[in-house]
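Private note to self, pasted from the team thread so I don't lose it. Backbone tokens:
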């Protein structure tokens, strides 16, 4: 079953379309994901065999690979937002969930690399939640 998804970066310069099905959805707490997201984790979807097409802003896309690791990020050079990485050698497209403009029909399947999570990433479910900025 094939699915069509669209997404964009924060500033809207980079837009893409992905045709394929998400098979994995992980919340990664490794130190590299925390640094690139500035948050507790990255939320990444993986679509084996998917087709990624850039609709606009392909000239704004930059790629970073951390030396001697498998860690890589593709991002907009204007706003810094993470966008999909077409990992052709691995036969899949890795998609940051936050850059999607369409809904997905898969829920996160696991928190990974919990041994390197931030020390403040404990009991977050107990932290008060608000629909907007609290006063």
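Design output:
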């Amino acid at each position: 079953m094939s699915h069509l998804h669209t997404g964009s970066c924060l500033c809207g310069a980079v837009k893409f379309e992905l045709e394929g099905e998400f098979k994995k959805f992980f919340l990664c707490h490794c130190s590299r994901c925390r640094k690139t997201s500035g948050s507790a984790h990255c939320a990444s979807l993986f679509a084996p065999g998917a087709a990624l097409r850039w609709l606009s802003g392909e000239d704004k896309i930059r790629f970073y690979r951390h030396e001697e690791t498998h860690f890589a990020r593709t991002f907009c050079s204007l706003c810094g937002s993470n966008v999909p990485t077409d990992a052709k050698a691995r036969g899949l497209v890795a998609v940051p969930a936050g850059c999607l403009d369409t809904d997905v029909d898969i829920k996160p399947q696991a928190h990974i690399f919990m041994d390197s999570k931030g020390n403040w990433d404990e009991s977050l479910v107990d932290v008060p939640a608000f629909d907007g900025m609290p006063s």
